Amino acid sequence: MARALLFVPLTLSLFSATARAQLGTDSPDSTRPVQWRVMFTEDPAHRAVVAWTTEDDGVSTLYWDTQPHGGALAEYANTMECTSGRYSLSLHYYHHCSLTGLAPATSYYFVTETENDVSREFYFVTAHDDGRPFKLMAGGDSRSDRDQRRIMNDTIRALFEQHPDVVAFAHGGDYIEMGYSFGQFNEWMTDNELTIASDGRILPIIASRGNHEGSSDLMDQVFAEPGGAGTNYYTTVIGDYWFITLNTETSMAGDQRLFLEQQLQQAHLAEACFISAQYHRPAFPGVKDPSEARAEWVPLFEQYDADLILESDGHILKRTVPIRNEAEDPTGVIYVGEGGLGVSQRTPVTDRWFIQGPNAFAASQHHVILLDVSRTELAYRAIAPDLTVVDSVTLTSRRCMNTLEVKTPAQGAVLESGADSEITWITGGWVPTVDVDWSTDDGSTWMSIASGLANAERAEWTVPEVATTTGRVRVRSTAGAPEGVSGGFTIALPEKEPDPPEMPPPPPPDEQPNPMDMNGAADPIPQPENEVTTDPAVAEGCACTETERGAGSILGLFGIVGLLFLRRRR
Amino acid sequence: MRSPWVDQCLRVGLALQCAGAVGSILVNGTPLNTMLFLDLGVSDALTRELDRGIACALLLAAISMMFAKGRSLFYAVAGWFALDALLVTYNGGTFAPPLETLGRTLRWIAPLAVVASMAGHGVRAQKLLAWGIALVFAAHGIEALMLHPRFVDYLIVTVDRATSLRMAQASAEAQLIAIGLIDVMLAILAIKRPSKAVFGYMAFWGIATALMRSVYYGPEIGWHHTLIRVLNGGAPLLLLLLTAEREMEEAWPEPSSSSR
What we know:
The complex is a heterodimer. By secondary structure, chain A is of the alpha+beta class. Chain A has 9 helices and 33 strands. In chain A, the strands form 7 sheets. A 7-stranded mixed beta sheet of chain A has the order 13-14-15-16-20-17-21, covered by helices on one side. The longest helix of chain A has 24 residues, at about 545-570. Chain A is elongated and about 125 Å long. Helices cover about 80% and strands about 0% of the residues of chain B. The radius of gyration of chain B is 19 Å and the shape is globular. The chains are: A alpha+beta, B mainly alpha.
């Protein structure tokens, strides 16, 4: 009896697992490449993996270039033979091409070929390696509702097309229900083609492993072993943003914990402006028990001041309060998630303290996360399939500020009007372009010298012919911040020889040449008032200084005296 | 099982297992909930109500189990835990789903052992328990040999909490292989050559690993993980006591005793 009883669960278990493993319906056709993916891991500015699927095996080649060639193979500057293999428990083949030495923020156009079957041309854009702002999309759990998954992929494509500065999509895992089912992964990869933009741009994936991938080899074959086969934890550095992908399906207390601590330390040493992590099973779940991440990783996030953590698995939309030491704390870490890319959404258990109050959010809502990352701010938005923003929060960097300090004109400097002068400043962080202004009234009002100037930390300036003892120069990022203002300086009018009496009158003020030599900015410049004088030259509108006028009068007197002397001699 | 205390102990163990299941259901839901919600489109609210109903039923079962004279209650409990074990594989999302199902065998075999005991089939009840615990050890042993990540973490964290020494993952994995081999060996011995030593070690290790959950997750979260596994140590403990009792009877036979 006991033996019979034991066979029942085992047989049924294996039967159900096998039956569910065969659910896939989409199939690649012969050696025709399909299901193109691009994966980013550690160094997305310089490395990427291009992958695709075929039904049959064959020599696979990637043709690629930084210029589009419309699929004309002979015109691509680079070709490489790729590695191929058979997906586990399937009759289909994957092809991985690992590209290294790429240039940052550059479009790479490529065509995939297996045997003689060639794809159309696609392209992807590498990440930048500087501090410029960018966007990152994220989400998880696309495993069980294929129709919804396709809707969400349409949403992702729409956002991708709307925001060309999206660098990649971070997937929090649970792509499919049964991690060892190629049929299900086959469907997922086909559906993923919906995220390709209409111009052929592919959205690179930063992949993490979910519990439904378990320890399956398929996940590594689909995503080209992100972070190493089976381990699947790694750090993606995009400019000043450190994005750590962790794996809740391997040991969390062992080597991975050490890895996490090392990465967080390095992020601090590298002066990362924001630190995020993504993993599957949540530390602060809106539905079920917390994962082991709560005990193993959360203390490290808090110790090293991580900013935003992306979780999945719970099938809800949530944003926790900032958490430190198991309590709400404005200096704490915010956890968002928990997966809504194609799985029925649960109702959050809202009596949990960390998703209560005005600083938290929880709902039953399919969503894509859009992160808008700059050096100083990280804006989180949860976006519904109809592209409405259902939740948002903006974090300010704890570690980075963009700075700008004006060095010259220095405090107390005396500038000569009409002379060429140099404005210099020093910037820190990301200040790509600046606006330069000046003031004669200690900064109460500003007049433009130049705007949208490339930040070379210096600019030539012809000092206007305006006398002031309260001059200032302001240099400001075109984005509005940061800005720097010089010390107060004086503009002195130069001493000139007196104008001859026959000198033609100057043009009226509105016809005078602009004293500024940059950008053609023509802000009104205050002109000194003319003194009332009997001097004919002055009366006719000579723009002379008092000294010049005095010198002219003396010369005139000498002339009169000379004439009288000559008449008397005669 | 001739001694009534054995039957009572088994009922207590089952009642604790049911209590653990109630805690687990209230926090994490049932695999039935997952299947109904995700695969059959039943509403979240309805599946949660169903979960609460199952939790209430199990709580009542845990209480009435101590006094129940009929078999139907035990069949119902066995049926629920068998379904639970099967649905774990159906839903997936665990390290090795079929092994997870196998590792839960004792949960539904133990109520059947009580039924067998109530029917006066003491030897059959013992065999059921022995098979149940053997399959649990076999499943966990194989998972250990596969380096189940949670087992690796249980070792690292438990040793850390006990000694403040953080074991390297490689050391934990090496120990896990040894543990896995021992578990599989004990599973075979529990069927082929049952002895006090075998059941004694199984009882010790079953209790230790159940308690390890509370150490690892903390008592607030870990208590139901521990309770639901109480028979992993309790069943071999009973078998140990029964083996000891039988050996004592063989050494000092009672004239009126009759074995079944």
